[in-house]
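Late entry, evening session. Most of the bench is empty. Finally got around to the prediction I had been postponing all week. Sequence below, unchanged from the version circulated by S.P.
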Amino acid sequence: MKEPGLDGRHRDRDGKISQKRSDTRNENLPTPIPQFRKDATLKGMRRATDETSEKKMRQAAALKKK
């Protein structure tokens, strides 16, 4: 049985929530990360912050800008 994930994402059989696609643009996120341009992709933001989750990317981006 499928369980609902975060932001409409699904869970795998082992319960892991799938990541958003790497070509998703910052402007299309539910709340864009202000430290990045609107046309930045998740792939680029993940590389810049060395993080994979959106929450950790926000924290890392906030620390780098200070």
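Two things to note before I forget:
The helical segments are 42-49, 54-65.
The chain is about 30% helix and 0% strand.
Will write this up properly tomorrow.
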